[in-house]
TrEMBL record:
Organism for this UniProt entry: Lactococcus lactis
Protein known as: Terminase large subunit
Domain of life, per lineage: Bacteria
GO molecular function, one term: endonuclease activity
Pfam family, one: TerL_ATPase
All residue ranges annotated as the Terminase large subunit-like endonuclease domain in the record: 240-511
InterPro entries for the chain: P-loop_NTPase (IPR027417), TerL_ATPase (IPR046461), TerL_nuclease (IPR046462), Terminase_largesu-like (IPR005021)
Every Terminase large subunit-like ATPase domain range: 60-237
Length: 518
């Protein structure tokens, strides 16, 4: 294995994104200037200290980042490093600033460091520079009379003996609309995953004009729907192309099952054994027991698993376990869960039974033919010619889809329910009618139990549309750690997921279900 491949990570410790990165690197590794790389490493280790004045030993993944940033014959337009928390990512910002000022300097350069807040940027760079200025042997201490340093700017004097004379490094908060009039040759962004708004469009325009570089170091998306989510999918494509001006180091676990296996943690934590230990991560987990919100943040910050996914209670991996070939419910005794909808939307119903601790379900999605069905391609929606779902045409469609199954219980959201209940009472001999507090925190235990049964392979259904509705649902967690489900996006549908949970509430919480289903 070549040096660069070794620095990126051992093959056995690589996630899928890092494996793809290494394939891309292999195409140009013969062009790497390792002598230049050694010059960088020696400079950093000789002239840089940590804020506590201890000497710093470069971590292998740092070597890989700096080598591709400075030691290949290609203009670097954008470089992104995504690692778990406590992996010394922000020290890369400091190293790059030192390299630009002292090792490969250009006069009158304009460099920007952006963080969520100005005081965070100041802590990353300015306080670190001040600490080095007070430490004998550092490059900052050696040349401290050659520049001015305040809370918001490092300015190399115009009459400095340094080749970087006239260069300025300024700090910015993520909510500032503009940088320095688009004069920057380098923009360094720290913890991009915490940015609410995306400043990169404007930044890229200025850098493109100046043939500059954008460098981002971050952990994962702590702000759902924020700037990070806007960019992540395009970053992932960079490891698949031959554009050597764009690089992403995306250290992450590949799926949630790996959270249970500490031997996989290095996939998201390339500084494991250097700046953090397994014990550090395990302490986080212990501190989050019983607090789903805290646990979700640990999973996203330590392992770079998506925050959106970590609050998606029914992930694709879980739902895929439940899908089975077509089920036959004709003549079966069943219970019903229903989420009534009157106009232009899905009336979502799930019917099911329990047998030997396993649960079997069929979905009945009903809607008018005139309504827009975004999942028409799945061929599962039962449509009717009525103007809404309370018409005789809708009820006939429902009856046909029931296919002779015999309902013993109806568990429903009371909204819009009265006319529907009348039809059920006129048609079926249902013993149990239960109003369910749909989408309330009172269903938290039902949600958790349903997820667990799905993971254990004890829930089975034959509807891809139900699978989609389940994956469209995410959890909202209150201050007491209780959860309810909401839809991820405004146009997403979760009617069948709601119906399933209404039904599971009866199976799990009512004693009556035990009289009819084993």
């Amino acid at each position: 294995m070549s040096l660069i491949q070794d620095w990126i990570g051992q093959d056995k410790d690589n996630g899928e994104m890092i494996k793809l990165l290494k394939k891309k690197v292999a195409k140009i590794e013969h062009e790497i200037d390792y002598k230049k790389a050694d010059k960088i490493f020696n400079f950093i280790e000789e002239f840089m200290t940590l804020p506590n004045n201890e000497r710093f030993k470069i971590i292998p993944y740092h070597k890989a980042v700096l080598t591709l940033m400075y030691c290949i014959p290609y203009q670097i337009d954008e470089f992104v490093v995504i690692v778990g928390r406590s992996n010394a990512k922000s020290i890369l910002d400091v190293m790059i600033a030192l390299i630009e000022l002292f090792l490969f300097p250009k006069p009158n350069s304009v460099i920007a460091l952006m963080a969520t807040k100005k005081d965070q940027a100041e802590k990353i760079l300015m306080k670190h520079f001040r600490a080095m200025g007070n430490c004998q042997g550092t490059v900052i201490n050696k040349f401290k009379n050659q520049f001015k340093l305040n809370k918001e700017q490092i300015l190399v004097k115009d009459n400095s003996i340094l080749k970087s004379k006239g260069t300025e490094i300024s700090i910015y908060a993520s909510n500032e609309d503009t940088l320095d009039g688009g004069r920057e040759q380098l923009v360094i962004i720290d913890e991009f995953g915490a940015f609410k708004k995306n400043p990169l469009i404007t930044i890229r325009q200025g850098l493109r004009k100046n043939k500059g570089t954008l460098f981002i170091s971050t952990t994962n998306n702590v702000i759902r729907g924020g700037a990070y989510d806007d960019e992540l999918e395009s970053w992932k494509e960079w490891v698949k192309d031959d554009d050597f001006s764009h690089w992403v180091f995306y250290y992450a676990l590949d799926d949630y099952d790996e959270v249970k296996d500490s031997s996989k943690y290095i996939k998201a934590n390339p500084a494991l054994g250097y700046t953090l230990s397994l014990e550090d991560i395990q302490k986080d987990f212990i501190g989050a027991i019983g607090n789903p919100v805290k646990m979700a943040k640990i999973i996203t910050k330590r392992f770079n698993l998506s925050m959106t996914d970590s609050t998606t209670i029914f992930t694709k991996q879980i739902v895929d376990k439940c899908l089975v070939p077509p089920l036959d419910f004709e003549g079966r005794l069943v219970a019903i869960g229903s989420d009534f909808s009157v106009r232009g939307d899905v009336w979502g119903t799930v019917i099911g039974y329990r047998e030997n601790g396993h649960y079997y379900f069929k979905a009945i999605p009903i809607m008018p033919e005139s309504a827009e069905d975004k999942f028409k391609h799945l061929g599962e929606t039962v449509t009717h010619e009525g103007i809404n779902n309370m018409t005789d045409e809708a009820w006939d469609a429902f009856m046909s889809a029931m296919n002779g199954s015999v309902p013993i219980a109806l568990n429903y959201d009371p909204n819009y329910a009265k006319n529907f209940i009348d039809k059920f009472e006129q048609t079926y001999d249902i013993e149990f009618y239960n109003k369910v507090m749909q989408n309330s925190f009172k269903l938290s235990n039902t949600l958790e139990a349903t997820q667990k049964l799905m993971e254990e392979g004890k829930i089975h259904f034959d509807s891809k549309l139900l699978a989609v509705h389940l994956m469209n649902a995410e959890t909202k967690i209150n201050d007491f750690g209780l959860m309810r489900i909401i839809k991820k996006g405004y146009t997403d549908k979760i009617d069948l997921a709601d119906a399933l949970i209404n039904l599971m509430w009866w199976f799990l919480e009512s004693e009556e279900s035990e009289d009819y289903f084993i």
